[in-house]
Specification:
47 residues; alpha+beta; two-stranded parallel sheet; 40% helix; elongated
Length: 47
């Protein structure tokens, strides 16, 4: 399955499996939409 240039929504992206998944997808040149309950923590990792 090719994910390059896809758009993927990751929930729980501020920690744990969601964070790891978001990082992996970003390295694979995928456009990643991050969603999380903790906006402050999400802002720290999204830069």
């Amino acid at each position: 399955m090719q994910i390059k240039d896809s758009i993927v929504i990751v929930t729980g992206a501020s920690s744990g499996i969601g964070l790891s998944t978001a990082q992996l997808l970003a390295r694979a040149e995928t456009k990643v939409v991050l969603a999380a309950r903790n906006i402050e923590k999400l802002a720290q990792i999204s830069h």
